[in-house]
Amino acid sequence: MPAERFVAALNDQIEREMGASQQYLAAAIYYDDQTLPRLAQLFYDQAVEERGHALMMAKYLLDLDVRPTVPGVREPRAEFTDIVEPIAIALDQERKVTDQISELTSIAREERDFVSEQFMQWFLKEQVEEIDLMSTLLSVAERSRDRPLDIEDFIAREGVGGDEDSDPAAPPAAGG
User: Fold this and answer.
1) Does the residue 170 lie in any domain?
2) Rounded Cα gap, residues 113 and 96, in angstroms
3) Does pTM top 0.85 for this prediction?
4) Which of 30, 50, 76, 83 could form a disulfide with 22 if both were Cys (CB 3.0 to 4.6 A apart)?
5) For 38-48, how does the pLDDT look when each residue is reduced to its tens digit (9 = 90+)?
């Protein structure tokens, strides 16, 4: 059985992952409305990915005979001042998630719940990739603020976001 303190914190993280998914979806819709299809697709994909992370966490609890909570989430921010702002919000969000995942790992270790600590390792690795993606995208967007098609070209040229192969080390997701 996972430590009760870890279970409570993981349920909180499931809620945050679902909220992150909604925020990415709001940004995707904004970019779709701005006729920036590559940015929109990148953010649609990120929304699905964050939902997937929540479902991986739910599956972990289910596998240990613990019923996860199904969270409600608050409404995401859907209005932005320019095309750069959703990316800046996403980077900030990923930095917060990194801190949260680190805290979950720490809780598991403090509780001597080594199975849960091991489970969190994949998410730590994933956060490095997420911060790198959004940091790079933000740098490009800030330089191209007045030329949004340059951002679209960058995404196409560099294959940013794209259809990545699934990570065989990724935890299984509930319903997957």
Assistant:
1) no
2) 23
3) yes
4) 76
5) 999 999 999 99
